Protein 1
Amino acid sequence: MKGYDYKELCSKFAYKGDYIGARIYGEGHINETFLIETTGRRYILQRVNSDVFKEPVQVIDNVVAVTEYLHNRIISNFGDPYRETLTLIPAKDGTFYHRTEQGDVFRMYLFIGNARSYQSIENPEMFYRVAKSFGRFQNLLKAFPADKLHETIPNFHDTVDRYRLFKEAIADDRVGRRSEVEKEINFFLDREEEASLVVDAIRTGEIPLRVTHNDTKLNNVLIDDATGEGVCVIDLDTVMPGSMLYDFGDSIRFGASTAAEDEQDLSNVWMDLELFEQYTKGYIEELKDSFTPKEIELLAFSAKLMTLECGMRFLTDHLNGDVYFRIHRKNHNLDRARTHIKLVSDMEAKMDKMNEIVLKYYNK
Ligand code: ADP
Ligand code: GN1
Ligand code: MG
């Protein structure tokens, strides 16, 4: 982490109050996030990761378009637009970002207070509410003109393309780790056949492209301290045309696990069916009228697919020398890949039950 001059960076934005201080904030794997204290409100200052997002200004453009749209939708629903969606603070030059001389791109948001993001589910009801939040988010964007959005990371959830990148990393073996992880590599290679199910169905039109969030992990929703309701879906950098299965599956991957994403004791790692049920219930309640038959058929499967895909991305990054996801210890990405292998195996064993749960709420 570089030592930034936070005060100087903040001075580029039209925030209210006098600068007091800054500290590193949050647990995201991608951007660098700082909490800014002022004599007035608090703010979030964020460096957009330009290794991950090759065109950071396109990311900003997307966030501007999506948050302006949501702002208006929330007002027409009599909600609080400064709490229920992100609010970018304009830069003094009239844009919504500041580019430093070194080329780093920063943005500033209003800090949403009296709410927090969680790294794990504290009770099943909480996950039901999170599902409602992501479901509502999708509903609010139903009529958003998708052609206004840049593809901020090409082929983001194209699992077939993810396999291509994985095999490239295996062949390159850039940092000489391949021989230590043959078992893990084979776990993913053995499951390649199923990887195309969703992308194929998108191609045939059985699964519609919608405007989706694409990064629906639990810590990307802020939960109200007082009511326990999901107040705001954040981390809008990957809002792009995609499948609702990506959003459903990725939420289960992270939130329905009984352990942290990087748990080292795999005997603690399971996919909790009760949590799966609560999420499925909330998601189907919100989106009942939207599903196509194929989406319902693949809903439970998508949890496995997104877990498989993310686990493979962690292993790819381990093979590439940890160049994508931020790590905090040796073999961190390998540990993450291993929890995902355990979760995929557990979901395979529970798939019939998961499908029964989907039908129970869909046919209600
Ligand atoms: P990353 O892309 O690295 O995951 P996020 O945009 O998700 O970055 O931000 C990281 C964390 O910072 C979030 O999980 C959340 O806890 C916190 N956060 C981000 N934006 C806000 C905001 N506007 N108000 C309050 N907390 C925020
Ligand atoms: C990253 O940025 P964050 O931490 O919310 C990643 C997701 C992964 C997730 C795994 C842009 O999400 O795709 O599923 O880590 N975001 C990007 O925890 O690659
Ligand atoms: Mg995040």
Protein 2
Amino acid sequence: MIYYICKVNIKILGKEPKMKLITVNSQQELGLLAADIFSEVINSKPDPVLGLATGSTPIPLYKELIKRCRDGKLDFSEVRTINLDEYAGLPGTHDQSYRYFMNDNLFDHINIKPENTYVPNGLAEDPKEECARYDELIKSMGGIDLQLLGVGFNGHLAFCEPSDTFSNKTQYIKLADVTINANARFFSDPSEVPKFAFSMCIRDIMLAKKILLLAGAEKKDIIHKAVYGDITPQVPASVLQMHSDATIILIDD
Ligand code: GLP
């Protein structure tokens, strides 16, 4: 497996990134490398807390975790997971809900206890109450050992869209048009894409002990902005410059 640390960035901008930026050549490499980072954390303590993400980029990672679990190299029996976000208005049985995605792409294939997996309730009647419940839940888990992230074309983390402030509580948020358009490809009719979502806040993401962000080649520009640009809530991912243990794996094809 070959990967180049900071290759792209050093070439283009000539300065060291504050986060660890690793570029790989393929989804397969991304999956293996990300799975190594996950394995280290999972094997480091009996009951790790993993913050998980949806999207197309984590799929090779989840496939590799399933494989390692089947091969007896990873044990999820005491692992607890908490997901970043969920569409408002979709039940967990809807094939585009993030609960469905997680069950289908990971939980149903590993030895995790379903009751140890948490995703916001998209059908919550009172969004404010659901946000407060999720805040409490995150607190009660005693800290996230490893938080997985993707990034939006506008630099969003989870569904924390560009804004005037970095959020410090679970959000019930109106999705940006660019996010709705980017996610329309998964729905049979673009008008079906939910306009609101629940999202873990930037504060809770930043409190994770370790952060791993995965990005496809199409996110190269926004990754460069996040890594080298100003730290601003207008580019939420730029906040990661302030984290002491954040790694980005970017596909550079
Ligand atoms: C959605 C999710 C984000 C995720 C993003 C990236 O917008 N809400 O949490 O980071 O997709 O998706 P992809 O992995 O397809 O690049």
Protein 3
Amino acid sequence: MNYLSAAQNLDTLRTPCLVTNLTIAKQIAQQAGSSESFRRETQDFKDDPGHYLCIQLGGRVARLLIMGGAETCSAAKFRNMANVMAKALLDMPIAQAAVYLLQAKVDEQDLGWKAQTLMQAMSHASYRFEHHKSQSKPASAIKRLKLLADPADLKPLRHEVRLGNALHEGLQLTKDLGNEPPNVCTPNYLLAQARKLARHEKVSLSQLDEKKMTELGMGAFMAVSQGSDNPGRMIILRYSGAPKSQPPIALVGKGITFDTGGISLKPPPGMDEMKFDMCGAAAVLGATKAAVEAQLPINLITVVAAAENMPSGRATRPGDIVKSASGQTIEILNTDAEGRLVLCDALTHVQTLKPRLIVDVATLTGACIVALGTHASGLYANDDKLAEDLLAAGERCGDRSWRLPLWDEYQTALKSNFADMANVGGKGAGSVTAACFLSRFVKKTPWAHLDIAGSAFHGGAAKGASGRPVPMLFNFLAAQGQK
Ligand code: BES
Ligand code: MN
Ligand code: ZN
């Protein structure tokens, strides 16, 4: 999908389809001398959100896609309308469409919000993952969406459209990586994908292989990776979009390319969904791609902790004690709590690169799904300002998170009789104790953790990666760039 902007000049507009509200549609039909047929065709049309009607006009504007209730509405209704529009456009045999909806009055939302909402809806609706189907369905014809605005708004709109195109690319990458099967998407595959990002002149890549990680004392990471025949990787991308003097923002992603649980083996039902256990890695790579495409004026470090959690003769046993790169020892009571083990060494490593803040993203706990379901990602932070910025970034684009506590009281659950800590807490608050575990590996840097176990992918009939929380991360990074 390609997004464009243009001035709304209805007198000269030429398009296979104009998407607009009933009032403007009527005006266009009048200009085209089709008032009578327009009146007939729209006679039963309900001008309410959720309703739409497509009318053939012929001439300069070949079709009108009339969106109900598009003049004044709530933010939720506008978002819903954007989704309805996207589905309708994808069903049409047209290569491009023009959208004249930005003049809508939406409660408390500005032009940028409306433009982003329309573009995001289109990006999501147009997504297909059919690399592994021997016969794929014919692709939708539409490739370009032109947003029309008042000439006075054209400059800000151009900026928004640039962000929309960048986010589209990032979402695409994140979903593709998530959906690839685990026999394709291995740690080495993630490394190859990161290398592609590093072809950009402002991006560079380095990586730690298992030998190097062992030398660096990353016993926690290696405890997970050692059971697999697919070697683990710590992948580090650096994007320089701002002067060197500006300290970088760091994103860290959990990249478990398949989580069997290890010796603490998971039960078979739904185990295939554990291919999505690298969605944190996919999200930080997607957000990085979007930041690079948008040329955000920030410095960014992206770390992916990529490993496969397998049972084998070399796998970690419950009860094994390992030493993390931070020097702290961990009694691994459950090998299925592996995400925190790869992440703690990644967090230790990223702090040596002196970031000004760290956000880690992980499909970390089933308990987070119990707490929040799929609508919100779980957010934890050792810094209120960072938490607020992330919450606001997600709120703006409908990719929301909800803050959960990191109180000291919860830390006691991680007590071990034999090591500095256990890798699991007791029965309750599993998402919190996982976050508490990670917090022990962050020294003074402002840090936030996003538990995306519920939000990163859909199960059931719509099984597939959701692309979350890329919109939130990208919005956050864009806002950081403005400071
Ligand atoms: N990858 C899982 C968490 C998960 C579950 C993500 C469902 C997405 C959907 C994680 O590695 C895990 O297995 N966590 C355990 C932790 C427990 C052993 C303390 C869990 O949630 O059961
Ligand atoms: Mn697990
Ligand atoms: Zn996992």
